[in-house]
Design a protein that fits this description.
Length: 313
């Protein structure tokens, strides 16, 4: 489990926002290797894997047959092999889901996920170059790939343990959960199993254009995504909340509008740049960005303003 901090929350936050810092074990890597890897995954994932260039990465979704989320992924091509990056703790389910559909397919799936880290901050690329690490490699000699953070598309690279060691030797600091969560909320990135889950419709979590190909052939769960895109709407949207006091609400606190619950806070942190506590929540669509809501929990209450994401560009 990621520690809350490595001894200096403020320094870690400022490194993530002003320079760069490494967040260990932020994601998990699953490899699918073999001649059928690309075609196998093309039939399951929302992204057109065939159109991802060798050495490149792209966003994608793994859905249930009913079209609900199972994982948010970054997908990378390494020749005929494919590398998948899922949120921490989700890799086991990705492996199980893929294995369930692997019938008469000449491809192997990692038996277990491999933890990988995130290098985040405006100085990330420069830090990689200064440490002598490549800015993109997806083969057996290492993993370093760009994966912009959230809707703000802040600079981020997914890196393996070897790259982390090199970066730390070059002076890059580690950042713990408190600072990393604040920067993630500001950028508008949900984590599967925390902010979104298997009950979430992809469009509730945010725009899907970058992760979904609407021109490729069929994939698992396609019908619901396509139907909502063409003529539907969702009842909830992932929103940011800026708390109007210096009170940090607990996870699970409810957002209330017109005396009715309209959402639950799933990620909460202190934003130093906004000088206020911030949160993520799936908010009912009748509440618009700019509206104020009451935040209530057992023994406490405050006010928050609902914002569109990202909170910081």
């Amino acid at each position: 489990m990621m520690p809350a901090s490595y001894g200096d929350v403020t320094g870690e936050y400022l490194a993530l926002r002003r320079a760069c810092a490494v967040v260990p074990a932020s994601h998990e890597m699953v490899k699918v290797a073999g001649p059928d890897a690309v075609t196998f995954l093309d039939g399951l994932l929302s992204q057109s894997i065939e159109e991802v260039a060798d050495g490149a990465v792209a966003q994608s979704l793994l859905l249930s047959p009913q079209g609900k989320l199972r994982a948010r992924l970054w997908v990378g091509r390494a020749g005929s092999d494919v590398v998948l990056f899922a949120d921490a703790g989700v890799g086991v389910d990705v492996i199980a889901d893929l294995s369930r559909f692997k019938i008469r397919v000449d491809a192997s799936i990692s038996p277990e996920p491999i933890p990988v880290a995130s290098l985040i901050g405006p100085g990330a690329r420069e830090a990689l170059e200064s440490a002598g690490s490549p800015s993109s490699v997806l083969r057996g000699d290492g993993v370093v790939c760009p994966a912009p953070l959230g809707r703000a598309e802040h600079e981020r690279y997914i890196v393996d343990d070897a790259a982390v060691a090199v970066l730390e030797e070059a002076g890059v600091v580690r950042a713990g959960a408190l600072a990393a969560t604040a920067v993630r909320i500001e950028a508008g990135e949900p984590v599967f199993g925390i902010d979104i889950d298997e009950k979430t419709i992809p469009q509730e979590a945010g725009p899907v254009d970058a992760a979904v190909s609407f021109t490729k052939g069929c994939y698992l769960g396609q019908e619901l995504v396509a139907r909502i895109d063409s003529r539907g709407r969702v009842n909830r949207h992932l929103r940011g909340l800026v708390i109007g006091s210096n009170v940090l609400p607990p996870l699970g606190a409810e957002a209330i509008a017109d005396d009715k619950p309209v959402g639950t806070l799933t990620s909460v942190a202190e934003s130093l740049d906004l000088r206020a506590p911030v949160a993520l929540a799936l908010i009912r669509r009748e509440v618009e960005p700019g509206d104020d809501v009451a935040i209530q929990w057992d023994g406490g209450e405050t006010i928050a303003t609902v914002r569109d994401l990202p909170l910081i560009d």
